């Protein structure tokens, strides 16, 4: 068996690549020489710990071939900078784009790994001058970095957050233009997109994404689907998820099979209006 990560229980993710891409997606690998829908996103789309993630369920409901292009902890950069992924999006009948957080983007203040966008690489001289008291060698992940910076100074961090918002909007616009209006934006979270605030919310997912940012990219998409998992589905916790002995804390923060079913039902209903 092939495993995406050690400790993922007995679940086989059949990791695969498309074309010349260096990104490793969840399989089984699909035939992209025939008509297909593409689903782009992060850990929720990948379906970590779930045997049948929502892209597979959409395929079963809608009766169309679906290519799962979800990546664990993905950011927009990984998709935008991969030519093979760009080709897949251009050739897809329709693309579902899960909205991911703004922290996993290379920007004026710090850079991230080109494929594993949650990995912090280095702080720019500009960020080092803003936070002279911070030792940036202590950080390996963007989430840890932004939360620490906010605790050091909410005002100074808000300057960084504004850069992240602007970068996210710019990169998402570029990604949406590539598919020429054939995209459905997907919001999966415990709450609706929040109103803009002077202080970035680093507790609610997707991080640092608000309603104003969604409004800025919405005209470039064919539709927008908002999925707020029901209390009944959330109450099931990790029931039905395939876990190793150390995975429960991580799995608890991800959609369980019942939530994936809710996502698939809403997205499939939206796709029926466009495909």
Topology readout:
Blueprint: E1 37-41, H1 43-46, H2 54-62, E2 66-70, H3 76-80, H4 83-91, E3 94-98, E4 110-112, E5 120-123, H5 125-130, H6 142-152, H7 154-178, E6 183-188, H8 211-217, E7 223-227, H9 231-235, H10 248-251, H11 257-272
Parallel strand pairs: 1-2, 1-3, 3-6, 6-7
Antiparallel strand pairs: 4-5
Write structural notes for this entry:
- The strands form 2 sheets. Strands 2-1-3-6-7 form a 5-stranded parallel β-sheet, sandwiched between helices. A two-stranded antiparallel sheet has the order 4-5.
- Helix content is 37%, strand content 12%.
- Helix 6 (142-152) packs antiparallel against helix 7 and helix 7 (154-178) packs parallel to helix 8.
- It has 11 helices and 7 strands.
Number of helices: 11
What proportion of the residues is helical, as a percent range?
25-40%
Q: Characterize the biggest β-sheet.
A: 5 strands, parallel
The radius of gyration computed from the alpha-carbon positions, rounded to a whole number of angstroms, is 18 Å
Number of E-type strands: 7
- Oligomer status: single chain
The average pLDDT score comes to 94
Query: Structural class, from secondary structure content?
Result: alpha/beta
Segments where pLDDT lies below 50 for 5+ residues? 1-8
* Global morphology: globular
Helix and strand sequence: EHHEHHEEEHHHEHEHHH
């Amino acid at each position: 068996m092939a495993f995406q990560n050690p400790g993922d229980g007995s679940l086989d993710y059949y990791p695969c690549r498309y074309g010349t891409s260096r990104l490793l997606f969840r399989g089984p690998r699909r035939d992209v020489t025939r008509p297909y829908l593409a689903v782009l996103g992060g850990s929720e789309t990948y379906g970590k710990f779930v045997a049948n993630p929502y892209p597979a369920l959409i395929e079963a409901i809608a009766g169309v071939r679906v290519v799962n292009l979800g990546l664990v902890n993905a950011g927009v950069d990984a998709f935008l900078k991969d030519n093979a992924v760009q080709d897949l999006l251009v050739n897809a009948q329709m693309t579902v784009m899960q909205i991911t957080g703004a922290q996993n983007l290379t920007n004026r203040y710090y850079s991230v790994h080109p494929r594993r966008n949650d990995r912090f690489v280095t702080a720019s001289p500009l960020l080092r001058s803003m936070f002279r008291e911070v030792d940036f060698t202590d950080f390996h992940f963007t989430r840890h970095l932004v939360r620490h910076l906010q605790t050091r100074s909410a005002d100074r961090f808000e300057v960084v957050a504004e850069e992240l918002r602007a970068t996210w909007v710019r990169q998402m616009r570029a990604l949406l233009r590539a598919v020429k209006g054939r995209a459905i934006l997907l919001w999966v979270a415990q709450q609706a997109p929040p109103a803009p605030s002077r202080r970035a919310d680093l507790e609610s997912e997707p991080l640092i994404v608000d309603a104003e940012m969604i409004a800025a990219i919405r005209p470039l998409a064919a539709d927008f689907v908002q999925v707020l998992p029901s209390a009944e589905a959330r109450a099931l916790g990790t029931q039905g998820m395939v876990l190793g002995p150390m995975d429960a804390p991580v799995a608890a923060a991800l959609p369980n099979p019942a939530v994936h079913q809710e996502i698939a039902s809403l997205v499939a209903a939206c796709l029926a209006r466009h495909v």
